[in-house]
């Protein structure tokens, strides 16, 4: 279960697309006083990732990466909002039934070895939404 029905899914992290991971991490460390997690490369998703507190910083690994195209189009900034669930498959089918368009019908491996899946921003008012299940 995902906590009480009233509270719904908690926010797991907010992700920001950046063109320089190390300097963005240093900036958010200065802003928040938090330390950075080790940098992780996720070639399947075309990104380098690190976390500063609840902030996920995404730097494109290649020019073809969707994050590279996002930065080209929008100049970086807020990339997605991630909600945590203990039942990612159940949530995907609930959201599909509710009419949301899924980018991932099946969860895939994300940062930290977690399972992740994305909803298409076309069906969420323009905001990319991620579901994340820790562990597995
Ligand atoms: Co994320």
Task: Output the radius of gyration.
Answer: 15 Å
Largest sheet, in brief, is: 8 strands, mixed
Supply the number of helical segments.
Answer: 3
Bound molecules: cobalt (II) ion
Secondary-structure-derived class: alpha+beta
Shape: globular
Overall pLDDT score? 94
What is the tally of beta strands?
8
Between the first and last Cα atoms, what is the distance in angstroms?
Answer: 15 Å
Q: Tell me the name of the CATH class.
A: Alpha Beta
Helix percentage range: 10-25%
Query: Strand content of the residues, in percent?
Result: 25-35%
CATH topology (fold) name? 2,3-Dihydroxybiphenyl 1,2-Dioxygenase, domain 1
Q: Give unreliable regions as ranges.
A: none
Can you identify the CATH superfamily? 2,3-Dihydroxybiphenyl 1,2-Dioxygenase, domain 1
| Order of helix and strand elements from N to C terminus | EHEEEHEHEEE
Strands side by side in the biggest sheet: 2-3-4-1-5-8-7-6
What is the name of the CATH architecture?
Roll
The overall number of domains is 1
Detailed description of the structure:
The protein has 136 residues and is of the alpha+beta class. It has one domain (3-133): 2,3-Dihydroxybiphenyl 1,2-Dioxygenase, domain 1 (Roll), CATH 3.10.180.10. It has helices at 21-32, 66-74, 88-97, and strands spanning 11-17, 40-42, 47-52, 55-60, 77-84, 108-109, 115-119, 128-133. The chain has an eight-stranded mixed beta sheet. Strand 7 and strand 8 (128-133) form a beta hairpin. It is globular. The chain starts with 10 loop residues before the first strand and ends with a strand. The model has no long low-confidence stretch (mean pLDDT 94). The structure holds cobalt (II) ion. Cobalt (II) ion (CO) binds at residues 13, 15, 56, 80, 82, 130.
